Amino acid sequence: MAQIQFTNSLTRKKEVFEPLDPTHIRLYACGPTVYDYAHLGNARMAVIFDLLRNVLETRYEKVTYVSNITDIDDKIMTRAKETGKDISDITKLYTAIYNEDMAALGNRAPTIQPHATDHVAEMIAQIEQLIDAGHAYESDGHVLFHVPSFPKYGGLSGRSRDEQIAGARVEVASYKKDAADFVLWKPSSEDEPGWPSPWGRGRPGWHIECSVMSEKHLGLPFDIHGGGADLKFPHHENEIAQSCCAHGNEGDLSAFAKTWIHNGFLTVEGEKMSKSLGNFTLIRDVLDEGVDGIVIRLALLSASYKKPLDWSKELISRMEKMLKRIYTVILDTAEIGTIDLSETHKNDVLAALYNDLNTPQAFADIHRLLSDLERGDVSSEDKEVLRSELLLLCDTLGLKPENAENYLNKADASTLDKALVQKLITERDAAKQNKDYARADALRDELKDMGIALKDGPEGTTWERL
RNA sequence: GGCGCGGUGGCAGAAUGGCUAUGCAGAGGACUGCAAAUCCUUGUACGCCGGUUCGAUUCCGGCCCGUGCCUCCA
Q1: Domain co-membership, A310 together with A430
Q2: C1’ B57 / CA A354, Å
Q3: Can you state the angle between helices A208-218 and A237-246, rounded to 10 degrees?
Q4: What is the extent of the structural domain holding A447?
């Protein structure tokens, strides 16, 4: 049996994945702060962890995938002020949009999608634990995590505390004992959202919600914690500090999550796609341009998850071709059955994905299967196996092979008169029979104007949308 | 300034101490009334300089270049 391997950011090595509990795999990925439309960077993270979940499910019966919604944050408060809307209206709206966009990309909903505002009591409890353990202190209405109390701080991002201070570009707030200390709780003014707490009315800092929600829904330690590479520091570093220190695990960074997986970000013309540079693309905009969500998914999986991925029109058009080919072959071979593959056989088919989610290799495997399925010198028994392998790979990658027909005939869903198309094809066939090629070509042009491409094959003429 | 990542053929992008990645684009051929699709064949690589080795794109060192994090960010 091929072993599943992932690159663990905590050890900076590719490691064989060994579940804490083989009967139940537990996975957490940091989800979005909901104050705006999601962009392709959010999409990359979601697609990669959805794939990771699929891959784990091919080997383990139960996988719990938790991905949160952060619905209390200063950015949301700012947005509320700007628009004059209620905070809860904003978070509800953008949570719904996020989930719609993720579904369009072929992602399944997480097993659990906890909301930060439903966990304030647990956050307060954990902050109290940290104060009791001597890792946090109250100051001027704030509660801060005292970084010097945790000598192993910085182990994930690989930077010592001194290095951070040397490079710090932030002004050190007066209420901090140490420049590296970070906020667990902060006071809210009357017009700001807040919850009662032992330190007065206030709201949580940015990192505590993930520590609390992952622990509550998965238990500690859990198998895999992930997110975008830019969360490594400070977000994930601080999560580790909170969770390890709240439970007396100061000596073991892996007492929170065993394996850390970070995806690389998207670039545009070589530069990071980011809000500050203004070069980000919303998922919604790409979908509105008519690009299928599964095409976006393919594009996001076209490079190793760890590396930067450059977003371009050319990438989309390549992936459109690839998806069309996959779906076409699946439909063309529809009359060929499938067989149940043995566990060993499935392992071989999924070997690329088991090897640190090597999606480019999986794409190469798909291309090989497509070619073999279209060759004339392959027996139908062999094709039955090949087709089974192809469907397994497509399912695991989340490519929705069951949507093949719908995708290829998309035009007929709305405006197209299917009967008229068939009538014109029949007319053209008659014209061809009579060697009236001028008439046949005129009919082809007419259909082309309707958005229909004809394909003459040995079994007759078929059509698809342009 | 500190820490990290990467430099592969026209483009995108993997693996690998010696043997074809794959895809897109290009060239030639088959098929086709036309068109599309498909199939067959095919060219072009491994940033620079040293080292280790029988042999390095792959390991080690130096250099150059690009890029990311250190501040909200997937």
Answers
A1: no
A2: 25
A3: 60
A4: 416-465
Question: Strand B: which nucleotides have any atom within 7 A of a protein Cβ?
Answer: 1-6, 11-15, 21-25, 32-40, 66-74
Task: Count helices and strands (H / E) in chain A.
Answer: 17, 15
Give the end of a domain, one of A263, A286, A309.
A263
Tell me which H or E stretch contains A205.
none
Nucleotide nearest to A12 (CA to C1'): B4
User: Cα A368 from chain centroid?
Assistant: 26
Our measurement of CA A352 to C1' B17, in angstroms, reads 22
Q: What is the pTM of this model?
A: 0.94
How many Å apart are A361 CA and B45 C1'?
19
Q: What is the pLDDT of residues A114-159, one digit of tens each?
A: 999 999 999 999 999 999 999 999 998 899 999 999 999 988 988 7
**Using an 8 Å Cβ cutoff, are A233 and A159 in contact?**
yes
- Pairing mode, if any, of strands A25-29 and A222-228? parallel
Q: Tens digits of per-residue pLDDT, A304-336? A: 999 999 999 999 999 999 999 999 999 989 989
CB A401 within 8 A of CB A395: yes
A437 closest-nt by C1' vs CA: B33
Contact of A145 with A238, CB cutoff 8 Å: yes
Alpha-carbon distance of A246 to A234, in angstroms, equals 18
Closest by CA to A114, choosing from A239, A192, A28, A231, is A28
**DSSP letters of A433-464?**
HTT-HHHHHHHHHHHHHTTEEEEEETTEEEEE
Closest-lying nucleotide for A39 based on CA to C1': B74
Count how many domains chain A has: 3
Last residue of a domain, one of A263, A296, A317: A263
